[in-house]
Every structure is written in C-alpha cells, then in structure tokens.
Amino acid sequence: MAYKSLLTVATSPEGLMTTVTAAAQIANRMDAHLDGLALGVDQTQVGYSYVGSGAVVIAAAMDRAENEARKAEASLNAAIVAQPPTLRSSVETVVTQLGTLTDIVGSRARYSDLVILPLAYGPGRSVIDEAVTEAALFEGMAPVLVVPSSGMKSAEPKRIMLAWNQSREALVAARRAMPFLRRAEAVQIVVVDPPTHGSERSDPGGLLCQLLVRHGIKAEVSVLAKTLPRISEVLARQARDFDAGLLVMGAYGHSRFRESILGGATRDMLESAEIPVFLAH
Which of 48-52, 127-131, 219-223 ranks highest by mean pLDDT? Predict the structure, then answer.
C-alpha cells in the first residue's frame, strides 16, 4: 500500500522548496509521480469597480495573474530541479479567477492519492492558500499533507500521532493515512476528553486501535484531559512529548465558516503546526 500519484500546488515562491522537497521524498520512497500545478489567480471584484472601467480592470488583473503564474512556474521548476534526478514529475500552469480556483484545484486533486501543500496560514500566506487547501479537501476529496516551514524529516515517519474523536472525518483520515501508518514503528491514538456517553465510553479509541493492529500497525491509545484552553494546544504538546514526526487528524469537523469565525482544531493546528499534518475530510 503506497501513494502513487502526488500533487502539489504553487501559488507563490513562499515555502515552495520545503513543500516540494517533502513531496519528492515521498515520491521517491513510494515510487510515485509528482504533479505540480502553478497557479496565477485574478482576485479582482469587478462588481465594485466604476462603471465603464470593468474591461480595463479585468485586463490589468489578468496581466498580474499571468505574471504570478510565470513566477510560480519558475519557482516550482527550480524546486523540482533541485531534487534527486530519480524524481518523476510534471508541471502544469493555469491562470484563473478566484471564483473558479476551487474547480481547478478540485479537479486535479480528485485524481491524486495525496496532495502536499504548505501551511495555509501565517506570514507570507494569503486567502488563496486557504482556498487551495479547502478545494483539495472538499472538492477534490483528497487527503492533504500540510508541511510546515521546518519541513518533513522523513518520508516515512517512525512515530505518528493520530487524533481521535470518534468522528467520520477522523476515521477517514486514519484510513487515508494507512501508507504512512503501516510504515511507522509506533502509532499513538490520542483521545482528548472523551465523552462520558456514547459507543466508546468504556474504551475510547479501542475499536480504532483494534482495526490498526489487524493491519499490522503497532498502535496504542492515550487518553488525555483537556488541560490547556485549546485542543490543538493539547495535541501539539503531546506530539512533542511523543516525538511524533507526523500528526494525522480529521479536517473541519465543524463548518469552515464557523471555524473561520470562532476557530477550531483544524484552523488552530494549521496556524501553528510544528510537524507535518495529514488531513482528510
């Protein structure tokens, strides 16, 4: 079991080398092909421009988007050239408007086993990066590996932490992460403040652990109290204590709108991730 078709999306040079390096490591280790998508995005809101200026605004915005696409393409090719020559890869360049970005990314992600992207939030990131991540997850229905600025230490992390809350999203993430989980030396299923009522009240994480063990995965369950204000902070602390090289978690258990306004474990984790985060919805 391995990922054979990988995708990365470049919207700017920021963080691109780290992301491509991680993707190349996985591709070479799992004998996969890496597809690169260089995007130039027109963010113009023509409806708010002065009457009669629409055509001029659109032309200028498309010129900027084409320039951004060329820069992203050049940076993406440079990052790929810097990888070992054994890497099999291809690059496609697309200029699009913000409103159609979801369809473009979603259609490419749909036929990929894994999408590798930089952090969607933080210095140098924009609304486009957030839109790309969500398009891959929701429209592409693909798992996404988010790589922080510190990079990915190994294409086959030996110690993996799996965040479990009995949700559909968490189970999908666990299943999609099987190629990583089966190669790990230790997998820790972490349950934070499990509910006192429900099917798993007497054995939180037990059924998932059983499933993984039957696949030959060395898994164990760790039940933690929520001793910090945010669940993401508890997970981050546990990941450091466990020396995890990868965190697997379900993405957006609440609506994206609610998380963007009120916050949530997914958004919090993507704002401050110290290790690669594997997401699936």
Answer: 219-223
> Percent of the chain scored above 70 by pLDDT?
91
- The topology (CATH level 3) of 5-147 is Rossmann fold (3.40.50)
pLDDT digits (tens, 9 = 90+) for 208-245: 999 999 999 999 999 999 999 999 999 999 999 999 99
* Cross-strand pairs, 279: 144, 249
CA distance 257 to 259: 5
Per residue in 73-119, pLDDT tens?
Answer: 999 999 999 999 999 999 999 999 888 999 999 999 999 999 999 99
CB 36 within 8 A of CB 8: yes
CA distance 202 to 54: 63
Residue 208: CB atoms within 10 Å: 20
Distance CA 170, CA 172 (A): 5
pTM, two decimal places: 0.91
Burial class (CB in 10 A: 0-12, 13-18, 19+), 13: middle
Give Cα separations from 12 to 7, 64, 69, 119, 197 (angstroms).
16, 13, 8, 12, 47
The CATH number of domain 159-280, selected from 3.40.1280.10, 3.40.50.620, 3.30.1490.110, 3.30.70.560: 3.40.50.620
Q: For residue 240, how many other CB atoms are within 10 A of its CB?
A: 12
Q: Are 251 and 278 in contact (CB under 8 A)?
A: no
Asked whether the beta carbons of 54 and 46 are under 8 A apart, the reply is yes
